[in-house]
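Appendix C: a fully annotated inverse folding record. The material below is reproduced so that readers can follow the format used throughout the book. The structure is listed first as tokens, followed by the designed sequence.
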């Protein structure tokens, strides 16, 4: 990796000596998006590590924000010791890239509604949408807005409130904003429209979890992924939309725990 890695803010759960699982969130998210998955399903048997990506949370917000820069910073933070990797959306693209570049580092791969390759018009729309400043007069206003946006897909209000209390901050103007850099998010959508590595380069056991009503479709990639991996690929569809750990936490977490469980 040619970019100099910057150390990222890191959340961690479980014993230091347990088999490790690294979790990568999507754009506008943060590492604690995986907190409930870690605490309730994985931490008894795994060491779960979840960095805030560049431009997000408490990690550095300055550019560059390329895939190479993200991977270099992930490496600087968690290293490349073998383990399972879980990625949601853009985080899934990063985990997939890592598996192609450093296959010995990834023993199992979990892709949660992944943004492996966005059609250009989808990436353009999402990047334009990300330019809007999401600013709120109060925490309750921000929570109400996010709940309205998520209600169609069934995300519980209590879950959203728990996560937003870790992700929203007040600025000097007293208004509430999400803890991420809009420019980094726009840059990430450009990266998601770039050509990914071939599926044949990532022939490792892979769990693909797709939201039944996700705006981010995977139909244009699924046949090629299946042809390349065969029995190594497990495909599961869960209720709800793109954010499967909100809309279908129980179903998604159970599938992940089953996939990562050691052989009986």
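Designed amino acids, in order:
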């Amino acid at each position: 990796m040619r970019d100099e890695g910057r150390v990222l803010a890191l959340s961690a759960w479980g014993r230091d000596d347990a088999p490790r699982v690294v979790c990568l969130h999507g754009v506008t998210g943060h590492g604690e998006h995986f907190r409930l998955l870690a605490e309730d399903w994985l931490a008894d048997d795994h060491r779960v590590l979840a960095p805030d990506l560049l431009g997000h949370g408490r990690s550095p917000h300055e550019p560059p924000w390329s895939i190479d820069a993200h991977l270099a910073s992930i490496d600087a933070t968690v290293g490349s010791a073998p383990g399972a990797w879980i990625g949601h959306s853009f985080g899934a693209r990063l985990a997939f890239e890592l598996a192609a570049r450093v296959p010995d580092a990834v023993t199992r791969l979990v892709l949660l509604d992944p943004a492996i390759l966005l059609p250009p018009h989808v990436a353009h729309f999402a990047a334009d949408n990300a330019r809007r400043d999401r600013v709120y007069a109060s925490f309750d206003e921000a929570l109400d807005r996010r709940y309205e946006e998520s209600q169609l897909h069934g995300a519980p209000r209590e879950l959203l409130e728990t996560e937003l209390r870790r992700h929203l901050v007040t600025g000097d103007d007293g208004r509430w904003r999400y803890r991420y850099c809009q420019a980094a998010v726009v840059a990430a959508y450009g990266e998601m429209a770039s050509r990914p590595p071939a599926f044949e380069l990532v022939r490792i056991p892979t769990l693909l979890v797709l939201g039944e009503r996700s705006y981010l479709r995977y139909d244009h990639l699924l046949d090629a992924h299946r042809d390349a991996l065969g029995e190594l690929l497990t495909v599961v569809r869960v209720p709800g939309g793109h954010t499967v750990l909100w809309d279908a936490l129980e179903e998604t977490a159970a599938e992940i725990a089953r996939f990562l469980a050691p052989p009986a």
